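input
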Amino acid sequence: MAARLAYALALAEGQRPVDLRSSKGMGLRQSEVFLVGRLLAARVYNRQSFVGMFHHAWKVNGTLKTEDVDENKVLFSFSDPAARARVLRGGPWGFSKASIALAEYDGIVPIASV
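output
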């Protein structure tokens, strides 16, 4: 079905079809809700520890996936919208004595604009 839609959205004959698969915040996604997180500190930090801490602290119902978007941002994908709402209400969050900025993300606009 997605292939037919992508084919229908192709701009002109001979051009490549539109790719609707997820790709680091640049694609169209469905059935997930998102947060973009950023550590508000100028120092270097361990990304694996940063992401692991949230998996442990948030205790999300359903699945929580993470993607490194760039050197400053992490995309959190929730399968349960109520879990994302609970995380936002439960803040403020921090890591290694630095605050974390969290913003809702719709999965459509480029993450750079969030």
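quick obs: The mean pLDDT is 75.
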